[in-house]
Amino acid sequence: MSTLHAILFAIMQGISELFPVSSLGHGVILPDLLHWNLDRQDPSFLAFMVMLHLGTALALFIYFYRDWLSLLGGFIRAGGRPVTPESRLVWLLIAGTVPAGLIGLLLEKKLRALFGSTTFVLAVLIVNGIILIAGDMMRQSGRGRTLDELSFFGALKIGLVQALALIPGISRSGVTLIAGLRQGLSYAASARFAFLLATPIIGAAGVLEVPKLLHEKSQIPLSLALGCGLLSGFFAYLSTWVLMRYFNKHEIQALRPFGWYCIGLGLVGLLLRLL
Asked: Is the pLDDT of residue 155 over 90?
């Protein structure tokens, strides 16, 4: 991977990780449509993508650092018991993280194989768009609940849905947003939970995958990967800032523009592959 390609990847990752359009899907589609000479089956490619994800996780931690300090402080003061809003939310995040973590570990090799089929990812991206539009249409009516009203079973269901994002083309932020809406959360509360949920799952993936960049045959130098991770984090911070304001202002049909984008990109990509 050239330096220019790595930088473009970082920018794409930072923008698309938080927007509900599947950053992993774009990571597969972009090099294929632009005819980059890149081996996506190389273990270091996935490790590089995870490094970019770590950059976005760092950006999310910085953006929500007051939340995390409050949550962790409240958790410690409560002795780990879910007796305060802060400690309870920590347990909700744990419940939402475990399903995707376990499924990812159990199906790692099978999921990695999906990165080799651009046609498959384009088709899944169309499905992602349909999910976003349908989820928006089927969201529960009402004022929208806060995270204090989310049950542990509801958080677990959101975590199970989050596991779908292990498939390239399915947006993690998108499906977790919709799952939150289906639990009766407002757009802002669902987005906050989805973004908080990103930090532990991405951090865990980084612990497993980033060491592969230290392999002597890695196609991506560690220094380049680190720099691109920081660049990805910068754009992720900007994306988070934009989206949190967007979801606070748009409580109706907020996900549909992203859904139509995914459908359009998927259809155009499939058409180009047929020509």
From this structure: yes
